[in-house]
Amino acid sequence: MNDATHLTFSCLCQRVQFAISTPRSSLPITAHVCHCSICRRTHGTLFTVDAHVPSPPVWITPSSPGECTRYTATPYLKRLFCSTCGTHVLDYAVEAGDEGWYVSSATLAAVNGVKGAGAGGVFDLKTQHCTKSVSGGGAVPWWKTVGGVSLQEWNPDEDDSTPSSDAPAPHALVDGETRSGSGSVRAHCHCGGVSFFVRSPVPGVDYSPSSVLTTHARVPADTTKWLAVNCFCDQCRLAAGVLAAQWAFVPISAITVLQQGSHMALPDDLRVGTSKIYRSSPPVTRTFCGTCGATVFYHHAGWPGMVDLAVGLLDAPRELGGARADRMLEWIVEDDVDELVVEGRKYHAEWVQSVQNGLREWGAVVAKASLGQSA
Ligand SMILES: [Zn+2]
Ligand SMILES: [Zn+2]
Ligand SMILES: [Zn+2]
């Protein structure tokens, strides 16, 4: 391919590195946003942005497929994530009509050897998938338009056997567990290997510091909620393998793990079930499920009592807002929190702006509705 464009991809720890070559005329490659429960629970995010690529990945030595863990998400879909850092990098689908390789668009590292060029001219978005099955709407209202154009919605047929509803994976509940127990909401990854419970704030208890945003120290305006953000920084984007990671800032004391029918404190090392640990920088510990790759926690040593929890794992009932859990979480919707967006804008300015616009518009609608309720 003389006119080939050489795309290279990498996980957060860079042990996984592969290339995909595509004719220049095929760019931009069409990607799609997906809101399905498989994507949310294998990534720990509220959506994914993957792209069907024209050729299989070519591994860049010393990297090899052996650096990845394979997870069979459905009989038709295998997901590959880095065994060391947890970044979801590739999917392989065998469903008729959709077979082939899909790449996590967030992991693009270089174009024709040029690093940091961003994904703007490489990936293009026109559709969002599985918008109807998300309890409470999830991130669907945040993805209204891209570049001023509405995304087309695609949903599986009603009788489609693909499990895309919000029902937990059948093996994800163990005896004695309920979706919401002891006033807490359950959180779990797709394989069910990581499972824990999160409590809403107890009125009158001071949880400060309740924000780990260094440039934007703040506490939730509504003291019955935890603060939540979309983080578009390079590290979070790569850790999850998605354009933005959705984090809830929660005190460790509000998280419990069910052991033999009793709620126990989250262990100091943040290990739960099948989780693995990756230290992405000296003060930062990230945990992910070693079986299905879901992002679970981010912890910074500078905020010892707090943890960032991957919102995509929450199993909040509809009364608490469903997937987005916005009756338990106060989402930051303004786009002036630089540390969350600056790096993301370099990666894909249009997509980041699209989500920021969607967030702001959604936030305005929510604020208006709550004013109406209190009037
Ligand atoms: Zn890695
Ligand atoms: Zn999906
Ligand atoms: Zn898992």
Automatic annotation (TrEMBL):
InterPro entries found in the cross-reference section: CENP-V/GFA, Mss4-like_sf
Pfam families on file: GFA
Domain CENP-V/GFA: 7-124, 181-326
Any one GO molecular-function label of the UniProt entry: carbon-sulfur lyase activity
Keywords: Lyase, Metal-binding, Zinc
Keyword Zinc: yes
Annotated segments matching region Disordered: 153-180
The keyword Transmembrane belongs to this UniProt entry's keyword annotation: no
Family, similarity comment: Belongs to the Gfa family.
Name of the molecule in the record: CENP-V/GFA domain-containing protein
